[in-house]
Amino acid sequence: MQNFIWHNPTEIIFGKDTVKDLSPRLKADNIKGVLLVYGGKGTFKSGAYAQVTEMLNKAGIHYSEVNDVKSNPRIDKVREGIARIKAGGIDAIIPIGGGSAFDTSKAIAAGACYSGDVWDFFEKKAAIEKAFPIYGVVTVSASSSEVNGIAVVSNPEKESKVSMNSPLVYPKVSVIDPSFQITLPEKQTVYGGVDIIAHMLERVLDGDEGSELIDEQAYTLIRTMMRVIPELIENPKDYDLRAEYALAGVMAHNGFLSVGRRTRGDFSSHRMGHSLSLLFGVPHGASLSVVMPAWARYLYEENPVPFARLGEGVFDIFDGTDEEKAIDAIEALESFFKDIKSPTTLRELGIKEDDIEKIAANASKGQTFGVLADLEPEDVLEIYKLAY
């Protein structure tokens, strides 16, 4: 196990009817005006918008809005929010939603304190030195953006979907009321669950053999999600299942599963999934259920141990060589994705074989990336071909 420092500054308020608990925190911080950042109909259907605005009205806090934030959030909404804040009267940001609302809010929070263009942070041309505080309300668990300092945003003009990362954009407070997620469509529950599982897999499949304690925590969380997702498909209004799902989402990507590791994890599948979302509008979770099994199949023969350990820890696969246990684990994972009706091939996404080279070029950008193995551009192309 490697040396580490782990600090997560976000206060989590978890449970039913907890939006009202934001009020004393906003008052204590002397917040007079906020920017609400949210998507569309789901924000209203869940009841979250009504509860947030009621809380603000009772507290005498005025608010402005940036709405219609889409899945795979775009830089134009970030710039819109920055302009609203720079016009004055805003002290903080309240995202209402999931990763898209939170990521957009983080970029706004940093960009509103910067004299240049906010995209500079994503291209690593500038460092974040200051940010507006964020007090979030979660209505979709998936990305763990409510408990980390990462924001992923798309810039269609530059054909780029990349991240920025800073401790300054961790939400100060995140309210997680699982009852808001009872109204989610089935596909959103499925795709969000795949994203949560992927965050865990990207730790345990990084090839680090000195983090068994943390790996065991991840295996337990993966097993929990593999139990909860099918049960939620059958019982979408079950509060306790929603609560388990939401708390697993917090644990997946709040930094805990990276402690003691040589790196934060191997996020190659996320990078390759981002290109599918950017170029073809593929839902993030759907991109991961397609890419991860293909990535695993491409690498397991030369790196069987992490996949074999996954087989033992999650799927109770104990017989055979490491190579045999590894391929059995990959097949079990792919089978689970199929069972919950998450796609596992590019064909299911409507992507043509002729598009694969373009996707691979966008993902690799002529660079080598990866932790379990260094992926050259030609490797990336072969993985997409396996996924077809």
Question: What is the fold named in CATH at topology level of the largest domain?
Answer: Dehydroquinate synthase-like, alpha domain
- Classify the beta-strand content into a percent band: 5-15%
SSE succession? EHEHHEHEHHEEEEHHHHHHHHH
Low-confidence segments, given as residue ranges, are: none
Calculate Rg over CA atoms.
Answer: 20 Å
Total helix count? 15
CATH homologous superfamily classification of the largest domain: Dehydroquinate synthase-like - alpha domain
Q: What is the distance, rounded to the nearest whole angstrom, between the alpha carbons of the first and last residues?
A: 38 Å
Strand-pairing-aware structural class: alpha/beta
How many beta-strand runs?
8
CATH architecture designation of the largest domain = Up-down Bundle
Summarize the structure in words.
It is a single chain. By secondary structure, this protein is α/β, with parallel strands linked by helices. It folds into two domains: 11-180, Rossmann fold; 185-387, Dehydroquinate synthase-like - alpha domain (Dehydroquinate synthase-like, alpha domain). Helices cover 48% and strands 11% of the residues. It has 15 helices and eight strands. It has helices at residues 22-28, 41-45, 48-59, 75-86, 99-111, 119-122, 186-204, 212-234, 239-252, 268-280, 284-299, 304-315, 322-339, 356-364, 377-387, and strands at 11-14, 33-38, 62-66, 92-97, 135-138, 150-155, 160-165, 173-176. The chain has a six-stranded parallel beta sheet with strand order 1-8-5-4-2-3, with helices on both faces. Strand 6 and strand 7 form a beta hairpin. The chain is globular, with a radius of gyration of 20 Å. The two termini are 38 Å apart.
